[in-house]
Amino acid sequence: MVRKGERLTGETAKVYALRLLSESIINMELKPGALISENELSRTLGVSRTPIREAIHELQKSRLIEVFPQRGSYVAPISFEAVEEAAFLRRTVETAIVEELCDKITKKQLGELYENIALQEYYLGNEMSDKVMEIDNEFHKMLYTMCGKKRTYDLVRTAMGQFDRLRALSLYSIRDLKIVSDHKAITDAIAAGDKETAGALMTKHLMRYKLDKEEVMKSHPDYFK
Amino acid sequence: MVRKGERLTGETAKVYALRLLSESIINMELKPGALISENELSRTLGVSRTPIREAIHELQKSRLIEVFPQRGSYVAPISFEAVEEAAFLRRTVETAIVEELCDKITKKQLGELYENIALQEYYLGNEMSDKVMEIDNEFHKMLYTMCGKKRTYDLVRTAMGQFDRLRALSLYSIRDLKIVSDHKAITDAIAAGDKETAGALMTKHLMRYKLDKEEVMKSHPDYFK
DNA sequence: ACTTGTCTACTTGTATACAAGTATATTACC
DNA sequence: GGTAATATACTTGTATACAAGTAGACAAGT
C-alpha cells in the first residue's frame, strides 16, 4: 500500500505519517481511487491510528484524499476544477510577488536566486529530473520568503500537490528545459526592476502546467474525475 | 473559558468544537495569550479530547492558536506580519477575481449581488453590526463562487480570521458605511465590464483593514506580538 | 541568599478500545 | 431462480488510558 520509510530522528509520528503518505500520493505510487485504510497504514508504519488520522485530514485539505465517513478514505481523483483553481491561485499570487520583488529585492537575494538557477542548470544537464523538480519548488519558495511572505507560501503550498501529481505522470521532456530558462528570464526581469515583464513572464511560466495536464488527460483519463 | 453552545443536529463533535472555539477566538471572548486546555474544553463541551484536538489543529493552521508540545496551546497574539500577509493574499486574489468576473458574470448573478447589497443597506440602516459583518463575508464569498472558485475561497478563508479579530476589536464606526458603498461601486464596475476600475476599487476596499489595525494597535497593544 | 534536587500538577503526543454506520456476502425463505 | 433478512467484515468517529515532557513550588543543603 505505502512503502515503509525510515522515521527521522525527532520526527513525530504524525509528521512521519504525513511525509510518507504525501510522497506516496504525489509520486503516484498510490493511485487515484486507492483505499487509504487507517488500520493498514497503522500496521505498515508502526504507529497508531491517531497520528495516521491527523495526516489524512491534512491531505484532505490539500484535496489529495477524500474522506467518506463510515465508508472509507480514498486517494482523490485528479479534479479538473481543482487543478485549475490551484493554478489560478498560484499564478495570481506569484505574479504579484515578483512585481513586489522588483521594488524591494536586494543584491544579496538576487545572488541567491542566480545560485539556485546555476544548480538547476547543473541538474538539468545531468538529467536528474527529480532533483530539478525539487529545486524548482525551492526557487519559487525563495521568492515568497524574500518578499516576507513565508506564511503565504505555506498556504499556497497546500494546493500545489495537484500540480506535482500531474508532473509525476507527464513524460513531457522539454518541460524542465523551459522551466529553467523561464526562471532565468524572470530573475533577469526582477534584476532590471521591470515589473511588467517580470509579472508577465511569471504568468506565462505558471501556465505551462496546461501541457502536462492535456498530456495526462489523454494518457491516463481514468485518473480524472 | 469558552461558552457551551448548543450542538446542532447532525453536527459531528469535531465540527461542534471547531465552531464554538473559532467563534470564541474571533469575537475576542478568548483573548490572545489565553490557555486552550484540551482537558478543560473537553469537560466544558462534553466531548472527548480527540475532536477537541482536531479543532485546535485546524485553528493552528489559521494561526489563531499556537501549539507548544508538552507546554500548552494558546490563543495566538495578533501578528503584524500575519495580518499583512493575509491582507496581501486576499487583496491579490479578489482583485483578480473581480477582473475575471467583468468578462463572465451573468445578468442573474449581477442581480444576486445587488440583492445582497440591498440587504447590506438594510442592516446598515438598522445598525445591526454583526449582521453587516456576516453579509459582508457572504458578498465576498459570492464573488468566488460566481467565478467558479469555491475551493480558492475555502483556502483564503482560513487566513481571514486575522481580519475578523481586528474588526471585533475596532470601534471604527464609519467602516460599515464605507464597506457597503464600496461593494456597490465594485458591483457597478463589474456590471459595466470595467476591469481596471473594478480591480482598483477592490484593492482599495481591501486596504481598509489598515484603519482597524492602527486603531486596535493603539487601544490594545498588549494583544499584539 | 542561593543553588539544587525533587515532587506535583499540569501540558500535548500516542495507543487502543469501543460505538456506529456501510457494503457485501450469505443464508433462509418463497 | 429470485428476494429479502441477516450475519460479517470492513470503515471512520469518539472516548479514554497511558507515555513523555515541562514548569513551578518547595524544601534541603551549602
Secondary structure elements and pairings:
The structure is a homodimer of 225-residue chains.
Chain A: H1 13-26, E1 35-36, H2 38-45, H3 49-61, E2 65-68, E3 72-75, H4 80-104, H5 107-125, H6 129-146, H7 150-169, H8 175-192, H9 195-205, H10 209-219
Antiparallel strand pairs in A: 1-3, 2-3
Helix pairs in contact in A: 1-3, 4-6, 4-7, 4-8, 4-9, 5-6, 5-8, 6-8, 7-10, 8-9
Chain A binds a DNA duplex (30 and 30 nucleotides) through residues 12-14, 35, 37-39, 42, 47-51, 53, 67-73.
In short:
Chain A is mainly alpha-helical. Chain A has 10 helices and 3 strands, in the order H-E-H-H-E-E-H-H-H-H-H-H-H. A 3-stranded antiparallel sheet of chain A has the order 1-3-2.
The most extensive interface between chains reads: A-B, 21 and 21 residues
> Helix tally of chain A?
10
Number of strands of chain A: 3
Describe the oligomeric state of these chains in a short phrase: homodimer
Radius of gyration of chain A: 19 Å
Could you report the average pLDDT of chain A, rounded to the nearest whole number? 94
In CATH terms, what is the architecture of the largest domain in chain A?
Answer: Up-down Bundle
SSE succession of chain A: HEHHEEHHHHHHH
How far from one another are the termini of chain A?
Answer: 22 Å
Strand content of chain A: under 5%
The name of the CATH superfamily of the largest domain in chain A reads GntR ligand-binding domain-like
Assign the CATH class of the largest domain in chain A.
Answer: Mainly Alpha
Helix proportion of chain A: 55-70%
Fold-level CATH name of the largest domain in chain A: Four Helix Bundle (Hemerythrin (Met), subunit A)
Q: State the low-pLDDT regions of chain A, or none.
A: none
Principal-axis shape of chain A equals globular
Structural class of chain A: mainly alpha
Count of discrete domains of chain A: 2
Largest sheet of chain A: 3 strands, antiparallel
